[in-house]
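Re: beginner question about structure tokens

> Can someone show what the tokenized structure looks like for a real chain? I only ever see the sequence side.

Sure, here's an example I had lying around. Input first:
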Amino acid sequence: MFATSKALNPKDHSQLTLAETSDYSFAADRMFIPIVLSEIADVAREYPLVFISDQPMPVALTGVEKGLNAYVAEDGSWRAHYIPGSIQSYPFTLGAMPDKPAEFAIVFDPEAEQLASPAGAPLFDSQNKPMANLRKRMDLLTKMKKAEPVTRQMVKELRESGLLVDRAIRINRPDGEDSQITGIQVIDETKFNALSGEEFLALRDKGLLPLIYSHLLSMANLRQGVIAGKYPDLAARPEPQADPVKPMKADDDFDLSLFASDDGDFDIFH
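And the corresponding structure tokens:
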């Protein structure tokens, strides 16, 4: 939800306009963007797909330094082909109606610059019906809302399987002012690979395998994607192991990244 929000209705907002823009500066400080099942494949190609210990949805990790979204360029453009649905739908989202918890209203950010531009197009026609620009976002929000329950259930079952483990991302700076992001969870690949055939089939029958494999593959985006591009030294950093094809040790929980440290966390040298 936005810092401030209003429920959209044609009676009060018939004169409201929306300007389409490629400026995503409004998301410049967002590091974790919740996604739904229908987005997983698109997100995994360009973002690290991780889990947050106290959140029910998987998230696209868009930054490794607090308040810095690596996917928003200085000019406000987005540094990826796929833009998560919650970003696409801005400045609108769905909010539960206080008197009808099972129903949702379209809510908007009254501070959004897109709604204050003189070049904007009307949201409603003369009959107070949604125009194409608003219908497009309404359709996207409805699709995402319908996908939320199954996505939440998948994450719940994944947690109950015991495959998720806590990890941290550490930022190691030359000046010694190191910092870290905690609360991130990833699949324990060693434990996943050790599942019995029966346990593996149980995950398959629950439909969890696409989420699991998408997550594991997506972690390569930490070292060769947009986030890595924010840290030039990262891409050039040599593999810390002497043997580049050294097999995974039994106590290595996760090792898809060139900068996964011995304790399984992720070290970024900046």
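Each token stands for a local structural state, so reading them left to right follows the chain. The radius of gyration is 21 Å.
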